[in-house]
Amino acid sequence: MDMTEANLDADHHDKQQGWPAVAAGSAIFFMYLGLTYSYGIVQLHLTRQGLAPPSTLSFIGSVGAALAPLTGMLVARVMRRIGYRRTACLGSLLLGLGEFTAGWSTSSVPAMFITQGVLFGLGASLLFLPAATVPSLWFKRKRGLATGIVYGGAGVGSAVISLSMEKLIQTSSIRTAMKILGAAAWAVCLPASYFLTAPTPTGSDALTAPTTSIFTIRFLLMLVMGAIATFPLFVPPFLLPLYVTSIGLSSQMASWVLAAWNLASALGRVGMGLGADTLLGPVNSLFLALAVTGVSTIALWPFASSPGLLVCFAILNGIGSGGFFSLMPVVVGAVFGDGQLASVMSRLTTSWTFGYFLGSPIAGYLLDAYGGTEAGLAAFRPAFSYSGSLTLAGAGLVLAVRFMLEKRIFTRV
C-alpha cells in the first residue's frame, strides 16, 4: 500500500480512528497554546506589581514559546524512539509542572524564567509536534479541516483561559491562578496524550528522517518565510492587554479584547483549514492569512482607540494569525508530500525559534524606547509598524512559492 492509498484508507475509517486523535490534539492545544497566548494577562499583572519592565517579562513568555521550534528536530528523534503517545505524556508532565511551579515564582524574574520559561517550554516542545502532526496523518481529503480543528482548540483555549485567569487573579491572586492552571494542564493533557497514535501504514513513514531532496528552493523559501513571519505573530496577544489599559480602559476590558482575538484565531484556524480543502487550496490560504494579519496590524491597530475598533482589529488579526499555524502542516503536505510530514515540519519550525524568542521582546523594547505604556497610543505605533511589515514580507515569500507551484493566478493551489 503506497502513501496515498494509506491516507485515503485512513479517510475512509476516520470516524472510528482519526477523529479521536483530532479531539486529543485539540484538547492539548486548548491548554498548551491557550496558556501561551494568555501570557499577556500574566505580563500585565507582573508589570503592575513592578517585577520588571514589559521588555524583560516578554522574554519569559518568549522562552516558553521558543523552545518548541528550537527543539523540533530533537523531539522528532524522541518520537522515533518512544512514539507519539509517550512523547506527549512526558510533555504534559513538564508543561503542568512549569505552570504550577510558576505560582511560587512571581516575585523573582530568574525563577519565572526557569518555571514559566524553561520547564513550560520543554513541555510545550514535547507536546507540539505530536499534537500538530498525528491528526494530519489520518486524513487526505479532510486534512485542512482536521488540522484546523486541532489548532482551533488553541484559540478557544486562549479565550477561555485568558478570561478565567483574569477572574482568578481578581478573586484570589496571580500565584493561585497559575497553580490552578498548572493542575488543569495535567488534568487535560495527560489523558489526551493517550489518543495520539498514528495509523500503522503511515506512522513509521512519517517518522523517517528526510532525504536531501527536500532541500530545494521551495524549502529554503518556506524556511525563511517561517523565520520572518513568526517574529510578529505573538506581538498582538502579548501587547494587547498593555495597549488596552494604556489608553484608559480596564484590565477586564483588556481580557475581553484578548478573548475576542483568541476566539477569532480559533475561527481562522478552522475556516482557513476549510478553505485549504475546498476553494482556495493550502498555499493560497496561507498567503491570505498572512496578508490579513499584516494589513490589519498596519492599517487598523494604530487607529484602534475605542472598544469597537479594538474588537474589530482583534477579530481580523486573530483570524489571520490563527490561519498561519493551522495551515503550516497542510502546506507542508501539499508542497513536500505526505511521507515525511513530521520530519520536514520539525526542520521548518526550527526557523521559527528566533521569531518566537525575539519577536515580542523587540516590540517591548520599541515600546520602552518610545515612552512606555504611560505614553499612550503613540508609543505603540513603532511596534505596530515592525509587526505588520514583517508579516507582509512573509506573505510575499509564500506568494513566491505559490507561483513556483502554479503560475496561473486564479487556480487552487
UniProtKB/TrEMBL annotation:
Membrane topology qualifier: Multi-pass membrane protein
Swiss-Prot/TrEMBL keywords: Membrane, Transmembrane, Transmembrane helix
Family: Belongs to the major facilitator superfamily. Monocarboxylate porter (TC 2.A.1.13) family.
Name of the featured protein: Major facilitator superfamily (MFS) profile domain-containing protein
Molecular functions (GO terms): transmembrane transporter activity
GO cellular component: membrane
InterPro entries cross-referenced by the UniProt entry: MFS, MFS_dom, MFS_trans_sf, Proton-linked_MCT
Lineage: Eukaryota, Fungi, Dikarya, Ascomycota, Pezizomycotina
Transmembrane segment boundaries: 21-42, 57-76, 88-105, 111-132, 144-165, 177-196, 217-235, 247-267, 279-302, 308-336, 348-366, 386-405
UniProt subcellular location: Membrane
The keyword Transmembrane helix is annotated on this UniProt entry: yes
Domain spans labelled Major facilitator superfamily (MFS) profile: 218-413
